[in-house]
Write a structure and sequence with these properties.
InterPro entries: MCP_dom_sf, MCP_transmembrane, TXTP-like. The longest helix is centred in the middle third of the chain and has 32 residues. This protein is 76% helix and 0% strand. The protein has one domain: Mitochondrial carrier fold, CATH 1.50.40. It contains eleven helices and no strands.
Length: 278
């Protein structure tokens, strides 16, 4: 299957949105169990292999991943053209990573809302539409922003990884060292994924705990949540609960999203990204 290099710069904003939604949805369907295990470990819930639990909230998580990825593809593409001065201009490695970082930050509010619904479904059940209705009825509209700032910070780091570090590493391996682009993608995804996971893990842990406790019985704001976890477990390790599940999940996600975006683009938009396209 032919691959398309730099699809974000070749496609329009709405085409990037559709490509991202498609790639993100497929990615999340494949990796849903890993997300459940990570969330369970962070909240101190027991490990399970029950598929009814593993795939509870899948619609919300696919919607979250799909629309968040779509938004990140769209905004990162816009920022790439903004920073370079246009689609036909050369893009530096720094500009590519910076555009990805800004695109990730812009996706944070929507992502935070969808993950709130997913986490509440995983803990208490309920439908995709009934869960937000229950939350608003019981806690008011402001509950839908629970953990929002943590999500913005986390997504900016995450997008900088898969839309910045991975393609930059791949280009370095091929253009500078003449090595396989597949090796570059793997190294970029592994190193970038684990590094991004480490940097964003405290934010993700605080967000997950806050969204699982909308009643604020134990966790109030992000700072208090991080402090409570540190005191309760007596170590900074508390902030990294579920790190290896999340780190492994991110590495696989980085590889999958890079592969899917470059191979779905020629299928979905052959005139722009297919063989012979300019």
């Amino acid at each position: 299957m032919d691959a398309c290099e730099d699809p974000l710069r070749k496609l329009s904003a709405h085409q990037n949105l559709v490509l991202g939604v498609t790639a993100g949805s497929v990615d999340q369907l494949l990796l849903q169990p890993m997300l459940y295990w990570k969330n369970s470990l962070q909240q101190g819930l027991p490990f399970t292999m029950n598929p009814k639990l593993l795939y509870r909230g899948t619609a919300a998580s696919m919607g979250n991943m799909g629309f968040t990825t779509g938004q990140q593809f769209l905004t990162a593409g816009v920022f790439q053209n903004f920073l370079t001065g246009g689609a036909g201009q050369e893009m530096t490695y720094g500009q590519e990573v910076a555009a990805a970082w800004m695109g990730g930050a812009a996706s944070g509010p929507l992502c935070g809302f969808m993950e709130l619904i997913m986490i509440q479904q995983q803990r208490f059940g309920g439908s995709l539409w009934g869960t937000p209705a229950r939350l608003v009825r019981e806690r008011g509209l402001s509950v839908l922003l629970r953990g929002g700032l943590c999500t913005v910070g986390r997504e900016s780091i995450y997008a900088a990884g898969y839309l910045g570090i991975v393609p930059v590493t791949q280009k370095l391996f091929t253009d500078t060292y003449g090595l396989s682009p597949h090796l570059g993608s793997f190294v970029g995804a592994t190193v970038g994924g684990l590094a991004c996971a480490a940097l964003s893990q405290p934010l993700d842990t605080a967000k997950t705990c806050m969204q699982g406790d909308v009643e604020r019985k134990k966790y109030t704001n992000a700072f208090q949540t991080l402090k409570t976890l540190h005191v309760e477990y007596g170590s900074v390790k508390a902030l990294y609960r579920g790190y290896w599940w999340r780190g492994a999940n991110i590495v696989v996600e980085f590889i999958l999203l890079d592969w899917l975006s470059k191979r779905l683009a020629p299928i979905m938009y052959p005139k722009l990204c297919g063989p012979g396209a300019s």
